[in-house]
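Troubleshooting log. The previous structure file for this entry was overwritten by mistake, so regenerating from the original sequence record. Sequence copied from the archived sheet and checked twice against the printout by T.R.
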Amino acid sequence: MWVFGYGSLVWKVDFPFEYKMIGCIKGFSRRFWQSSEDHRGIPGKPGRVVTLVESSNPKEEVWGVAYKISEANAESVREHLDFRESGGYRTVHITFHPADTSIMPFPLEIYVGTPCNPFYAGPAPLSEIAQQIHESVGPSGPNDEYLFRLADAMRAIAPGVYDQHLFELEQEVRKLKSLSNSNCAHTL
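Regenerated output below.
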């Protein structure tokens, strides 16, 4: 069993795996279009986390990490991921393209929050998404921590790959955080 991580699974792996491989899937875009009331927000004040949306460009790439799960752990890892990704995600089979081009592309599973799920937030102006992320906190921590850790992880595993939505959103949230911190300093 192979699973592809493109969000928190890039930097927060909480299941046993045999090995991991950096690479990409094609024909999708990573977007902060999925609401999170269970991890990075709360009911009534959801955060935003990533999902994948089909791209009009079949060559568009989403970089991440593929994890090889042993046959002995496959059932328990699937149950764990089904629970972890229960907020509107479903599994999809897709071709993974390893960064190491000596390895042939192969099929694996990904969890995708589709537009028909109840937690799909959909597109919005970047400034609105940034504000929502900046203000949201859930049981797994601040929503901005999720964004920052993902951006840092992507720069580490895929240097030279520019994920426009991710990195522009990171800049917007860092500006909001900086403004917030400077406003707090002036009120002291």
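The chain has one domain: 2-181. Archived copy saved in two places this time.
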